[in-house]
Design a protein that fits this description.
heterodimer; A: about 130 residues; alpha/beta; Rossmann fold; about 20% strand; globular; B: about 575 residues; alpha+beta; Beta-Lactamase; 4 domains; six-stranded antiparallel beta sheet; five-stranded mixed beta sheet; 16 helices; elongated
Chain lengths: ~130, ~575
């Protein structure tokens, strides 16, 4: 399984990469949004874990640009948003793309890894469910 | 003694002699009634010297100009007369106070002597009541020219004009009086003033003609005296004339010079006073027209001042107003009224404060949250059973600490969430978090939380409740810090007691400080009421307003031993 992590905090990205690799995934890490967009256009991934607050562009910009390659339903399946700022507006916008949102910090790390591997509808992060 | 032939001098001599005569008559009347209590002779000698003698105290006064006798003999005699009058009745009752009377009397004599030696100023030319008038009655330049013309010493003059310019102003003022008519006041261009001022100032002579000065603003005709004065705020020109072309005599010049020399401080005092009056009338105008109702009352509760806004309040509406009171000089009180019902201001203030803090905490939360989460995640990866146990423990500590930081920042930002944030929360936890927030204001003070139930899950507005508790703890902390010295702050104590049943909740915050003084009790929840230098006076007002929104109440009691307890009660839905 090919996973792309778009996350500018190296400790988070490296840890997730390690954990997912332990589960047998092939993980690429990209800290900036613009480079991530290029990679997404040129390579195919089964899952894209994307932070919203990147240094250059927002995670939503990455998703928006990915429309060139993926259909809306594909985007909903492939993208999982991870954010420290899950305001109602953020959740609403994520819902437009049909993406899951996981709040950082994750309440349960194993559950989160599960979501990353198995995709949406398995999100058990409480904040996601409540909203 | 050329002046002896001068009619003015003769007139003055007549006045002096009549006064001395009256004085001697009063004195002999007194002595007849009481036996000879005063040993005093007043005598005009042939060489125009005046001799005063009392017991062994003798004073000879002479003056080159007899006119001047009027100036000091006037106050002297009225002074004696006053002493006689004040003491007559008293003396008749008790002869014992004679020595006291004599002491006063001799003191006055010495005062005159000293006056004559050191201060040959105003009273030399002006009568005492004129001096008093000059200082007390003449408040503005407009009345000064007319006043100067009434002086004995300037009796022969018919016109007087005072031109003044306050530095920095674009205009100058002229006040002109010709004898018998009221003085007129005019305003004119400063350039014309400066022209006249410079030419008079530069001239060595004091005598001018209006052809010479050629200035339309100078209203005297013919030849006249002119003199300039300059203080750090004003330039002034004084003009004194007779509207004729005869040049003034030398003695007249001498008197003019001497009198005007003494006029300078008087002029400055008058100008200062008149600009002070201007300032006051400006202030009064502002107070008069401000939208806030204001009143000033004296000690006996009578109005000294009411502004328009105050007058507009109907009598039966006054009870709806709160006021802020300040004691002014002289025990008068200024009251500033505002409507109790208009809570908008405090609410708005509170809203700003909460949203600002909320925003700040949110930013902080985001900035810290990510790296802290990274730290925590990384420890999961790093912790490997193969590591040295001590290292494992250290990595575990890093995780615990970063999670703790994460929790603290999260709880703080939860305290200041959006206003209408009603949700489930644990009250005990919220109070503990709030106590942490107040740490800096309650340093060293013991705090305890007593509750019959923990956790206590409610559905309510945690932001508001935390705000209320926060304000009460801060108030208690500040009261305690005032009451206890830093060495004894360990004896200070804040205790929070939470009681609840199925429908109601009460939270009380008690301190062991001084308690609320009686005079503040009624106004404690009023907006802007504060006893602290840096206080806004809004803390308790905010508490009350938030509790209104929660259908709750707040009240306080002074504890039986010491300190105060604030209690809030709320209807609740326990979950």
């Amino acid at each position: 399984m090919k996973i792309l992590i778009v996350e500018d905090e190296p400790l988070i990205a490296r840890s997730l990469k390690k954990l997912l690799e332990k589960k047998g995934c092939l993980v690429t890490w990209e800290p900036t949004g613009n480079k991530a967009i290029e990679i997404i256009k040129s390579e195919s991934f089964d899952r894209i874990i994307c932070d919203l607050m990147l240094q250059d562009v927002s995670g939503f910009d990455v998703i928006e640009d990915s429309k060139e390659r993926y259909s809306i339903s594909e985007i909903g399946q492939k993208f999982i948003i991870i954010t420290a700022y899950s305001s109602p507006q953020v959740l609403q916008r994520a819902a437009l793309y049909g993406c899951s949102v996981l709040s950082k910090p994750f309440e349960d790390l194993n559950e989160a890894i599960d979501v990353f591997i198995r995709g949406r509808d398995l999100g058990t992060n409480k904040e996601t469910i409540k909203s | 003694m050329e002046d002896q032939d001068n009619p003015k001098s003769q007139e003055a001599k007549g006045i002096v002699l009549r006064r001395i005569e009256k004085f001697n008559k009063d004195l002999s009347g007194l002595n007849n009634r009481l036996g000879k209590v005063i040993d005093l002779d007043l005598e005009v000698l042939k060489n125009n010297k005046l001799k005063l003698r009392s017991n062994n105290h003798s004073l000879n006064i002479e003056d080159e100009n007899f006119t001047c006798f009027t100036s000091w003999i006037g106050p002297a005699i009225s002074g004696y007369n006053q002493i006689l009058e004040n003491n007559l009745e008293h003396l008749e009752k008790s002869r014992k106070s004679y020595s006291q009377f004599r002491r006063k009397f001799l003191g006055h004599l010495k005062g005159i002597e000293k006056h004559e030696k050191n201060n040959r100023l105003l009273t030399r030319y002006f009568e005492e009541d004129q001096v008093r008038e000059l200082y007390n009655v003449i408040h503005n330049l407009q009345s000064l020219p007319g006043f100067l013309l009434t002086l004995q010493v300037f009796k022969s003059y018919t016109v007087c004009q005072i031109l003044s310019h306050e530095k920095g102003q674009g205009f100058a003022n002229s006040n002109y009086s010709s004898s018998g008519s009221r003085s007129t006041s005019k305003r004119f261009n400063v350039e014309e003033f400066n022209k006249a001022f410079q030419s008079i100032k530069k001239s060595k002579s004091k005598v001018f003609t209006n052809q010479g000065l050629n200035n339309p603003k100078i209203e005297a005709i013919g030849s006249f005296f002119a003199k300039t004065f300059s203080s750090n705020r004003y330039n002034i020109i004084l003009i004194l004339g007779r509207n004729d072309f005869l040049p003034p005599s030398n003695p007249e010049l001498k008197i003019f010079e001497e009198v005007t020399l003494h006029l300078e401080p008087v002029l400055n005092a008058i100008l200062r006073r008149s600009s002070h009056d201007d300032k006051i009338s400006n202030i009064i105008e502002v107070l008069e027209n401000t939208n806030f109702p204001l009143s000033i009352k004296n000690r006996s509760d009578n109005f000294l001042f009411k502004n328009e806004a105050f007058d507009e309040i109907k009598e039966n509406e006054l009870k709806d107003y709160q006021f802020l009171e300040r004691e002014l000089f002289g025990k008068n009180t200024l009251r500033f009224y505002f409507n109790k019902e208009s809570k908008e201001d405090t609410d708005l203030y509170h809203f700003y404060r909460v949203s600002l803090l909320g925003e700040l905490l949110n930013t902080l939360r985001h900035e810290l949250s990510n790296p802290l989460f990274g730290l925590s995640l990384a420890t999961d990866i790093l912790n490997d059973d193969s590591l040295d146990p001590e290292l494992q423990e250290t990595i575990q500590d890093i995780k615990i600490n970063s999670d703790r930081c994460q929790t603290i920042i999260k709880n703080f930002s939860n305290l200041y969430q959006e206003e209408d944030n009603f949700k489930e929360f644990d009250l005990i936890n919220l109070i503990n978090e709030t106590i942490i927030l107040t740490k800096s204001e309650t340093k060293g003070i013991r705090k305890s939380v007593q509750t019959d139930q923990s956790p206590l899950i409610l559905y309510s507005n945690p932001t508001w409740i935390s705000q209320i508790i926060f304000n009460l703890i801060i108030n208690a902390g500040q009261a305690l810090a005032e009451h206890f010295s830093p060495e004894r702050i360990r004896d200070a104590n804040i205790s929070i007691v939470i009681k609840s049943d199925d429908n109601n909740l009460s939270i009380s915050v008690s301190d062991n400080g001084t308690g609320i003084p009686d005079q503040l009790k009624d106004r404690l929840f009023d907006a802007f009421m504060t006893t602290k230098d840096a206080g806004t006076g809004l803390g308790l007002t905010i508490c009350k307003s938030l509790l209104n929104k929660l259908d709750g109440e707040i009240f306080f009691t002074n504890n039986s031993e010491n300190g105060t307890t604030f209690t809030i009660t709320l209807p609740i839905e326990k979950l």
